[in-house]
Design brief:
about 80 residues, globular
Amino acid sequence: MFYKSIEWLRVRQQALIRDHGLCQDCLEHKHITPATEVDHIIPIRVRWDLRLVLSNLRSLCHRCHMIKTAEDKRRYGG
């Protein structure tokens, strides 16, 4: 499974380090919230080739990740 792969775990950790372990959406609203998830900006079902590209990842809290996932479903279907 992709989300248990060594490659994913490494790039996920790199994203969290780059983002200082903070939710990037919350930061835009001047809130400090720990990130618990790493989101694919362009979902992997749309661009599998970007699955391990650090610039396609951002750290989010669970709440913001759920909102982003719902937006992705509306935008891309699923």
